[in-house]
Design goal:
By secondary structure, the chain is an alpha/beta fold. It contains 12 helices and 12 strands. The strands form 2 sheets. Strands 2-1-3-4-5-11 form a 6-stranded parallel beta sheet, with helices on both faces. A 6-stranded mixed beta sheet has the order 7-6-8-9-10-12, sandwiched between helices. The two termini are 36 Å apart. The chain binds alpha-L-arabinofuranose. Alpha-L-arabinofuranose binds next to helix 3 and strand 9.
Length: 309
């Protein structure tokens, strides 16, 4: 439906007839799967015709999908970008076609913020800071840390690394002894952790594992256990996302802390699109989502709540 027609209709009619293209990163983690499911459910609830495209972690697939959405004349496009750079040309194409774009989750590095309506996402730097503050408190700032990074070039990995390093940089006794990407996946988390434990003589001297998401933590704790160590005790584990599976790991004592990132981005993205098509233009360029940190001390209420849903 075109903008002119949209303006002749009321907001509810706009919502019920919308076609939205959604370019998703992939399905690398439990967090992302929940995110995709929640966007689809929200679209169904609102009667939005959602054109969903899974890019399988490849930017070129995302660019192709966006071009196809433009060719189909969708009313709006939502993009969760895999990496930060390389978006300007395709965003310009959407702009020329007068199709509003909403960025969700990771960021795009473009010098013209008019290329998208808004970005709905947490502060990744702050997530890294929260994880590091928890770890520095738990270890009195004395800690040899292994880091598993997310996808190289993604703003989630870049920001979380920056925030974490900023905090531990204030503690003389804390340092990252190994840092490697495990691409945000459970399988890689296990594989990379296995090789790090070997390289570290079994891992007995390590104090903590810091992972840029829960999925890698869940893979790595298997590797720690298989190496004869107790995750959560011999090696502390702190990560980001607070997915359902991490609550079981918190309960089992295998994980010590996880910073929450809500996967429910569809509702806010569709709210923005509906308001935009209804004529609103004064959006904040970054709608920041806040998240809590769950630890072995405070996870119980949330765990019970999720079990009951
Ligand atoms: O960009 C957000 C990150 O991507 C989530 O933390 C992770 O689980 C996902 O794959």
């Amino acid at each position: 439906m075109g903008l002119a027609l949209a303006s002749l209709l009321g907001a509810s009619q706009v919502a019920s007839a919308l076609t939205v293209g959604f370019s998703q990163v992939g399905s690398e983690s439990g967090w992302r799967t929940t995110f995709s499911e929640s966007v689809k459910a929200e679209a169904d609830k609102r009667g939005i015709d959602l054109k969903f495209s899974d890019a399988q972690q490849k930017q070129e697939n995302q660019i192709k999908a966006i071009r196809s959405f433009i060719a189909q004349g969708v009313d709006a496009i939502v993009v969760a970008p895999v990496v930060e750079t390389g978006w300007r040309p395709v965003l310009m194409e959407a702009r020329r076609a007068r199709i509003p774009v909403v960025i969700v989750d990771r960021n795009v590095a473009v010098n013209n913020d008019q290329l998208y309506v808004t970005r709905i996402a947490p502060n990744f730097v702050d997530e890294g800071r929260k994880a590091a503050n928890w770890l520095m408190d738990a270890t009195d700032g004395q800690c040899d840390i292994v880091e598993l990074q997310g996808t190289v070039g993604s703003s989630a990995a870049i920001g979380r690394m920056e925030g974490f390093n900023e905090v531990i940089g204030k503690y003389e006794g804390a340092k990252i002894v190994r840092s490697q990407t495990a691409e945000f996946t459970r399988a890689k988390g296990k594989e990379v952790m296995e090789s790090i434990l070997k390289a570290e003589g079994g891992g007995k001297e390590l104090c903590a594992l810091w992972t840029h998401n829960d999925e890698m933590a869940l893979g790595a704790i298997q590797a720690i256990r298989e190496a004869g160590l107790k995750p959560g005790e011999d090696i502390l584990v702190v990560s980001v996302d607070a997915v359902d599976d991490i609550f079981s790991a918190l309960k089992a004592g295998d994980v010590n802390a996880s910073v929450e990132m809500s996967p429910h981005l569809g509702g806010p993205a569709f709210d923005v699109i509906e308001a935009y098509l209804d004529g609103k233009r004064d959006f904040e360029k970054w709608m920041v989502m806040d998240g809590r940190i769950f630890t072995q001390e405070n996870y119980q209420d949330e765990y019970e709540l999720r079990k009951s849903q």
